[in-house]
Hints:
It is a single chain. By secondary structure, the protein is an alpha+beta fold. It contains five helices and 13 strands. It has helices at residues 46-63, 99-104, 134-139, 145-167, 222-236; strands at residues 6-9, 13-17, 23-28, 31-32, 41-42, 70-73, 78-82, 85-96, 112-122, 131-132, 171-185, 188-194, 202-206. The strands form three sheets. Strands 8, 9, 10, 11, 12 and 13 form a six-stranded antiparallel sheet that branches. Strand 6 and strand 7 form a beta hairpin. The longest helix has 23 residues, at 145-167.
Amino acid sequence: MARRRQISEGKAKILYEGPEPGTLVQYFKDDTTAATPHRRIVITGKGVLNNRISEFLMRKLGEIGVPTHFVRRLNMREQLVREVEMIPVQAVVRSVAAGSFARRFGMPEGTLLPRSIVEYYYRSDELEDPMVSEEHITAFGWASPPDLDEMMALALRINDFLTGLFLGTGIRLYDVKVVFGRLWEEDQMRIVLADEIGPETCRLNDLRTGQRLDAEACRGDQAALTRVYQELARRLGVIPESGPADPQGPETLQ
Length: 254
């Protein structure tokens, strides 16, 4: 495997320099901290499933005209993506009350909201992603008012599409977290969906049983989390490739 320089590493992915200018290789790890933010759990094969699920959903969103950084899947654990200037804001679109939202407003978990609600959070592991307003975002220069308008429009469109897609598999989408980046092409800039879409960015419930089908489902139970990832992949028609053991990632240059 070609040796590539590591650009950055997060909780679930590693970014390497891409084969062409303006591209990166996104490598999906088996690590997760979704249900246990202060303890890392390794789920064998999680990165392979996340890669396939995110590829599937990114492609589907691209087919309806949502711009994304996704180019193509390279192998079982890697994607080729466009290099973007990440906006340090996470948009969460909520359609059903759950988690911190339900607690804030004293709503029973699972209450349908009158309409989808978009909330913003500053992306910072050290600060545990605090909730912010549009005033914070524009005052600190994280995004301009036109950027925010585009981000909200895209977030709602993504939520609407994923809601219908998951309903077709017997799953209700409670909420979805999306992040965006600025893609520069010569002197032109556009806002595109970045990072990933999957069980670590969506809160999902089985319509029939109420079972959680996302990364926070099992509170650190490795075997149960593995079953959840496999079930979600099965429902979406995503089947991991067979064959030799998946690659462990390209060698890093210091």
